Amino acid sequence: MTMLWTPSPNFGERTLPITMLILHYTGMQSGAAAIEWLANPASKVSAHYVVDENGQVVHMVREEQRAQHAGVSFWRGITDCNSASIGIEIVNPGHEFGYRAFPEAQMDSVTRLVAELVRTYHIEPRNVVGHSDVAPARKEDPGELFDWGRLAKLGFAVPRPTEKLVDPGWTDAAFLLALERYGYSVADGRAAVVAFQRRFRPENIDGVIDGECRAILWSLLLAYEGGGAT
User: Fold this and answer.
1) What class of enzyme is it (predicted)?
2) I want to staple 168 with a disulfide (CB 3.0 to 4.6 A). Which of 31, 80, 218, 220 is the partner?
3) Residue 230: what pLDDT?
4) Which one, of 198, 174, 200, lies nearest residue 186 by Cα?
5) 137 near 191, Cβ under 8 Å?
């Protein structure tokens, strides 16, 4: 894959092995503005890679270094997600500036980059996540229009459960316990539910725990944990 090298000075040393891949959208009005910001020392933020809408991949931080992309975050017990992850920024204006679908050329490059990184670092599908998954109270990206199904079909991300869904009938408190068991921080319960819906039921993001949400989460826990909350 052909890449442009545009280094960012905003990085540090890792304290954890690479076990995660976090996908973001840039949330700025242009890709050029996003790259300029990520390369600016004053921003104190960075990502390992940026994928523009035309499919061009820009490499900004070497993989062995800790980029500053996740912020305050949590996933499956990890509180320093920056140290454990590689961050990919996908150029898109985001919800603030006119959120839109991700073009085919861009998704093709994202898919190829994810494939390369997952295979290199043996990252399990459950740890290929969105920024909103690891920071649900703060973030919405890469958002409900991102094609997780495309990555899932290739085995790089967790697919949305669609068959033999059964509502386990949990209370809301039990659902949040199960959501935490799957990986999410539930410090802000409603935000965690919204993030879960954005990832696994993007057509209806209302923050309400219902039978479909319970059934999807139960199916995920059966697949990845061998069971759920009671």
Assistant:
1) hydrolase
2) 218
3) 47
4) 174
5) yes
DSSP 126: G
Half-sphere exposure of 145 (CA within 13 A, CB side): 14
- 227 pLDDT higher than 90: no
Active site residues: 89
pLDDT (tens digit per residue) in 72-116: 999 999 999 999 999 999 999 999 999 999 999 999 999 999 999
Q: What is the C-alpha to C-alpha distance for residues 47 and 24, in angstroms, rounded to an integer?
A: 9
At 227, list the tokens: 């069971």
For the chain, the structural domain boundaries read: 3-153, 172-223
For 22, phi then psi, to 5°, come to -115, 125
Cβ atoms of 213 and 221 closer than 8 Å? no
Q: How far apart, in whole angstroms, are the C-alpha atoms of residue 68 and residue 220?
A: 30
Q: What are phi and psi of 64, to 5 degrees?
A: -75, -10
3-state secondary structure of 56: coil
Q: Is the pLDDT of residue 60 over 60?
A: yes
Q: ∠ CA(32), CA(23), CA(219), 5° rounding?
A: 155
Q: pTM of the full predicted structure?
A: 0.97
CATH architecture assignment, domain 3-153: 3-Layer(aba) Sandwich (3.40)
Give the span between the Cα atoms of 63 and 12, in whole angstroms. 11
Residue with tokens 């139960």: 218
